[in-house]
Design brief:
462 residues; alpha/beta; Aminopeptidase; Aminopeptidase i, Domain 2; 2 domains; 9-stranded mixed beta sheet; 6-stranded antiparallel beta sheet; 12 helices; 29% helix; 24% strand
Length: 462
């Protein structure tokens, strides 16, 4: 069953909409290169659309009503949007959930050292990466530093055309015989991903003179002492903007499509809801998925459950654990995460007729996991049948997929975590080429179809 290519079905009006959505998405991608920046941008978009802080409503004890739009932020790294519907919350919600963290390189807490007249920062990579892809490329630094007095210093270096960039050097090919003889996974080591930050010594310094230059810059430009890095979160990410890819401009090349393309599609879908939807609709933007959804901002934490409990209390005027359990277990969810796009150059890793193709629309993965579906949600057939009905009624271009051949690899999403509440969940996302590389590729058509699919699911899923 070969699915049709979405591009063949677009008239001039649809093509204009595809392009407009792509331009908005590229701006979102450029504005959000870290989970903090993505959360901040999501709140900005939500507030512009009339969403208000749930935290303020709780503090004021304000009763909520259908049609209210609310957001909740978890530690500046995860965001939840709610658009309250006509049906009681106990009847469940229509939920779209993605993650906003992406593979990267983090600066360690005690990072700086000098060697051979260079100042470096020690790092620890985050998420699954091919380490060799991160050397010999321009990197930017994004993050925050929290000082002891509570002041927050925001760092963004390497994105403006006038900014310097930093990076990790590689060994010249002339001396690489030993390195080239190693496995790809061993050619560059995790401890070898140290970022070069400076190379000019202070004239009046005898020891660590280049490090002195670095510390002087931090002091003069940001008011920071070396010790302030102990309470900092600074991430090294690929420098530069998202770009149109392909001579036909049909694709987008950028950092962080996994999973910010789905996160953005969710945000746009939420903005398309009627004033009062049938069911309460929710957009989840979670952190830490790339390292197992752990920590206080990962999906395994209880902040989503706690937030729904607050909504119930403000809607009904009373607290009920049973009502909370009903609201969660009766919900319907798309776990919106990217899938592996079929790549003809690496066809041996895929089972072609069960692969997602760029340009053929949003894809649905009944199961993810690895080997014998380990770590998977594996959605039930009844739910998939209803999802198919909604997609076809709205003439969405969609396809099904698996993550590569059986026993070749695999991966996971937040689907199985949300399914623990008893809700119906299936994975849905945009096909990506070069997933987890510093620069990934998506089709503009798939982004557009994902927005349409998520909007249809939120409005009409029952």
């Amino acid at each position: 069953m070969e699915r049709p290519n979405a591009w063949k079905q677009y008239d001039e009006t649809a093509l204009a909409r595809v392009e407009a959505a792509a331009e908005r998405y590229k701006k979102y991608l450029d504005a959000g290169k870290t989970e903090r920046e993505c959360a901040e941008e999501a709140v900005r978009i939500a507030e512009a659309a009339g969403y208000r802080s749930l935290e303020e409503a709780v503090r004021e004890g304000r009763r909520l009503k259908p049609g209210d739009r609310l957001y909740q932020v978890q530690m500046n790294k995860a965001v939840m949007l709610f658009h309250l519907g006509k049906a009681p919350l106990e009847d469940g919600m229509n939920i779209v959930g993605a993650h906003i963290d992406s593979p990267r390189i983090d600066i360690k807490q005690n990072p700086f050292y000098e060697e051979a007249d260079f100042a470096y920062a020690d790092t620890h990579y985050y998420g699954g990466i091919k380490k060799y892809q991160w050397v010999a490329r321009a990197l930017a630094l994004h993050g925050v530093v929290m000082k002891k007095d509570g002041a927050k210093v925001t760092i963004v270096i390497g994105e403006d055309d006038s900014d310097p960039v930093v990076g990790i050097s590689d060994l010249l090919i002339h001396l690489s015989q030993e390195q080239m003889g190693k496995k790809m996974s061993e050619g560059i080591t995790g401890e070898g991903l140290d970022i070069m930050l400076a190379g000019m010594p202070l004239k009046d310094a005898e020891n660590d003179a280049v490090l002195g230059t670095l510390l002087k810059i931090l002091k003069e430009k940001y008011g920071l002492e070396e010790e302030d890095l102990l309470s900092a979160e600074i991430e090294a990410v690929p420098a530069g903007r998202a770009r149109d890819y392909g001579l036909d401009r049909s694709m987008i090349l950028g950092y962080g499509h996994d999973d910010r393309v789905c996160a953005y599609a969710e945000l746009e879908a939420m903005l398309q809801l009627p004033d009062i939807p049938e069911y309460t609709c929710c957009c989840l933007l979670a952190d830490k998925e790339e390292i197992g959804s752990v920590g206080a901002t990962g999906m395994r934490a209880r902040y989503f459950e706690n937030t729904v409990a607050e909504l119930l209390a403000l809607l009904t005027g009373k607290e009920s654990d049973l009502a909370l359990r009903r609201a969660l277990s009766r919900s319907r969810m798309l776990s919106c995460d990217v899938s592996a796009g079929f790549d003809p150059l690496y066809a041996s890793a895929f089972e072609k007729k069960n692969s997602a193709f760029l340009g053929r629309g949003v894809c649905y993965n009944k199961f993810t996991g690895s080997r014998g579906k380990s770590g998977s949600n594996d959605a039930n057939a009844e739910f998939l049948g209803r999802v198919r009905k909604v997609m076809d009624e709205h003439q969405i271009c969609w396809q099904t997929a698996e993550l590569g051949k059986v026993d070749v690899g695999g991966g996971g999403t937040i689907a199985y975590i949300c399914a623990l509440y008893g809700m119906e969940v299936v994975d849905s996302g945009v096909p990506v080429l070069s997933m987890h590389a510093p620069q990934e590729i998506i089709s503009k058509a798939d982004l557009y179809e994902a927005i349409r699919a998520y909007a249809a699911f939120l409005q009409d899923m029952k």
